[in-house]
Design goal:
This protein has three helices and no strands. By secondary structure, it is mainly α.
Length: about 70
């Protein structure tokens, strides 16, 4: 059980890192980020969400990603 929690924590941290990078691209110094780079970040979020689904289920994984995105990007 502890291993599962640490894996969820790792994925949450990675999701937040990607969201912070996206926020920088949308509002920071990298405001001119290319479309393909932004798409890659969204794809990465999808990959992490799929990994989370195997640990916590589909709905909770979606909730985790949305919560991180809303907290960091908005």
């Amino acid at each position: 059980m502890g291993e599962c929690r640490s894996e969820v924590r790792r994925l949450r941290d990675q999701i937040e890192t990607v969201c912070r990078a996206m926020n920088q691209m949308l509002s920071g110094y990298a405001v001119t980020a290319r479309h393909d780079i932004i798409n890659h970040r969204y794809s990465t979020l999808g990959t992490y969400q799929e990994e989370l689904e195997t640990l916590v289920g589909e709905q909770q994984a979606l909730d985790i990603v949305i919560e991180a995105y809303n907290r960091v990007v908005r």
